[in-house]
Amino acid sequence: MTGSAPSESAALPEALAEIRHDFLDLGVKDRLQLLLEFSNELPELPARYADHPDLLEQVVECQSPVFIFVEIDDGLVHLYATAPRESPTTRGFASIVAQGLDGLTVDEALGVPDDYPQTIGLVEAVSPLRIRGMTALLGRAKRQIREKSAA
Q1: Average of pLDDT values for 100-118?
Q2: At what angle do helices 128-150 and 88-101 cross, to 10 degrees?
């Protein structure tokens, strides 16, 4: 890590800074294993979304079908996502973004750097298309946050 990494981490919300730290502390192969662990931690959709998939937005940039929906409740962000279990990389990315944004204020969530996916050490471990999908997932989540907080 470079000398500037601690200040970058300080600017990140705690959960995302911790996730990045966890990935960067590992070798490339172990980072993939951690990503698989995240894929198992993606919460199931609440029934109100499981029964109404039309409410979810597809992240078409992802190689696997990923759908998201953002709620803002009392000024706090909640991101719900779904991705197939047979797509653990994509599912892991969705889990990282969902866990990292959940419970943040609107301003904190919108302040997450757009390039966060490139900073967690997976660029060496997965294809550029997969990183682009995670970046798009974060971008779409932030767009929904902006739209819903303005409403």
Answers
A1: 96
A2: 30
Rounded to two decimals, the pTM is: 0.88
What whole-number distance in Å separates Cα of residue 49 and Cα of residue 31?
Answer: 31
Q: At what angle do helices 14-24 and 88-101 cross, to 10 degrees?
A: 140
**Token pair of 137 as six digits:** 């997932």
Structural domain boundaries of the chain? 5-150
Q: What is the pLDDT of residue 47?
A: 87
pLDDT at 7 over 70: no
Q: What is the pLDDT of residues 43-75, one digit of tens each?
A: 889 988 888 888 899 999 988 999 999 999 999
Q: Which CATH number is associated with domain 5-150? A: 3.90.1010.10
